[in-house]
Design goal:
Its EC number is 2.4.1.-. This is Glycosyltransferase. Belongs to the UDP-glycosyltransferase family. Keywords: Glycosyltransferase, Transferase. There is one protein chain. It contains 21 helices and 15 strands. The protein is an alpha/beta fold and 481 residues long. It folds into two domains: 271 residues, Rossmann fold, CATH 3.40.50; 200 residues, Rossmann fold. The strands form three sheets. A seven-stranded parallel sheet has the order 3-2-1-4-5-8-9, with helices on both faces. Strands 12-11-10-13-14-15 form a six-stranded parallel sheet, with helices on both faces. A two-stranded antiparallel ribbon has the order 6-7. Helix 1 packs parallel to helix 3, helix 8 crosses helix 10 and helix 19 packs across helix 20.
């Protein structure tokens, strides 16, 4: 009888996608996989439901189970921050999640793997005697810093915001400017959002182990810090398993790939000559910033592929969705920009097949919001990056990318929310044709080979996953005694 693994991702595309890749790893090892989804929090993202439907359709070997609906409007009436609302909803779903687990034959239930935001479900699994693990979709560096943060702020009477750019010293992580932490963590320690986030990071390391979407040589210092005694002096952290990089393989439908206009355009460009500009599933810029970025690209003289999303603050999102008339792009960008850059640049609306673009021979650099999934995809493709972090932990990732991994340069101005045209021009030229760009490409090319080797038979990520499975089996025997 096959054993079943239950995966419980949190809300949002950036959590479901890597956990789907983790599901595929379990499938290759002969396990059945059920992914439990929660309806309401997913609707808080701009495209969550669509992505879930597409994910289920393209992964028929994975079973998907949607928990019975809870009336989210009852919670929304409280006026709480959407993040706190999501956590509260996930907590209330514990009862349904427990009922679902109880319906599975205990002898066939191998383990439960929780997303970082579903961590309250740890109590459910512990009560049932089920091996429970965390899947942290972010970087090891981020987890290490966040795990050390409670000790740093213990006893403080004020928040960290007053420290500004003062570097904070975390074990295993490059010096981190206080201003680059997740903004809610800069508030007073008794602030509701700050306390909720602190609790999440603490609970993420209270399961029986943590699966990390990274490979050890990419973040060796951070990984070792999580395994050592200095990260959280007052307690021993659970085992850490580096099982990544878990990224998609690009489009599976070859004919569809060949028909995509941006890939056809890339086919006509020289090797490593194109700057790909895409800020993830939710990343948006103001109309003014879009225009200034366009000026910078034009002045650089370099080739570019730009995925433009609806401007931040726009009250007419339907005008900028895929399939909108071409004149709408003219309204967003400087007058005559599309005509002047025709042939050298391509601007598309809303969506690009990111993995296929990054893996194309013509792509030479990637302007990214520094979401961890995007960072891994670029490393796997061997593409150096220009950092334009927008929210969440992205500024923390930027520090690791530039100071620790050596795979990126920053676009100065991201801290004020506005990057000047001259900065765009200079950094694009630097990465595509400058000496520093050549060093970046060499570094990322080396990491690409290390990432590939990590996932091969006998590679460190494959070995780590096998170690994880052995630990679960041993733990299961103990719980069954």
């Amino acid at each position: 009888m096959k054993q079943t693994v239950v995966l419980y991702p949190g809300a949002g595309v950036g959590h479901v996608r890597p956990m789907t890749e983790l599901a595929n790893v379990f499938l290759k090892h002969g396990y059945d996989v059920t992914m439990v989804l929660v309806e309401e929090p997913l609707k808080l993202s701009d495209s969550g439901t669509t992505v879930i439907e597409r994910t289920a359709a393209s992964n028929p070997s994975i079973s998907f189970h949607v928990l019975p609906s809870i009336h989210a409007q009852d919670f929304a009436a409280s006026g709480k921050h959407p993040f706190l609302l999501m956590l509260e909803l996930l907590h209330y779903y514990n009862e349904q999640f427990e009922a679902f687990l109880r319906a599975i034959d205990r002898k066939s239930l191998h383990s439960v793997v929780l997303d970082m935001f579903c961590i309250d479900a740890t109590d459910v699994c512990m009560n049932l005697g089920v091996p429970v693990y965390t899947f942290f979709a972010g970087s090891a560096s981020c987890l290490s810093a966040l795990t050390q943060l409670p000790t740093l702020i213990a006893g403080r009477q004020t928040g960290l915001k007053e420290l500004g750019d003062t570097p904070l010293d975390f074990v295993g992580v490059p010096p981190m400017p206080a201003s680059h932490l997740i903004k809610e963590l800069l508030e007073h320690p008794e602030d509701e959002m700050c306390k909720a986030m602190m609790n999440i990071w603490k609970r993420n390391t209270e399961t029986m182990g943590v699966l990390l979407n990274t490979f050890e040589s990419l973040e060796s210092r951070a990984v070792q810090s999580l395994r050592g005694p200095l990260c959280v002096p007052e307690r021993i952290l659970p085992p850490i398993y580096c099982v990544g990089p878990l990224v998609g393989k690009g489009a599976k439908d070859v004919e569809k790939v060949e028909r995509n206009e941006c890939l056809e355009w890339l086919d006509m460009q020289p090797d490593r000559s194109v700057v790909f500009f895409c800020l993830g599933s939710k990343g948006t810029l103001s109309t003014e910033q879009l225009k200034v970025m366009a000026i910078g690209f034009e002045r650089s003289g370099q080739r570019f592929l730009w995925s433009v999303r609806m401007p931040a603050g726009s009250d007419s999102p339907e005008k900028y969705l895929e399939g909108c008339p071409e004149p709408e792009l003219d309204a967003l960008l400087p007058q005559g920009f599309l005509q002047r850059t025709n042939g050298r640049g391509l601007v598309i609306k809303s969506w690009a097949p990111q993995m296929d673009v990054l893996g194309h021979r013509a792509t030479g650099a990637f302007v990214t919001h520094c979401g961890w999934n995007s960072v891994l995809e670029a490393i796997v493709a061997g593409v150096p990056m220009l950092c334009l972090p927008l929210e969440g932990e992205q500024r923390m990732n930027k520090v690791s990318m530039t100071e620790g991994m050596g795979v990126a340069v920053e676009l100065e101005g991201y801290m004020t929310g506005f990057v000047k045209a001259g900065e765009v021009e200079a950094k694009v030229r630097l990465v595509i044709e400058g000496e520093e760009g050549r060093h970046l490409r060499a570094r990322v090319a080396a990491l690409r080979e290390e990432a590939k080797a990590a996932l091969e038979e006998g590679g460190p990520s494959r070995v780590a996953f096998a170690h994880f499975l052995l630990d679960v089996d041993n733990l299961g025997k103990q719980l069954g005694d």
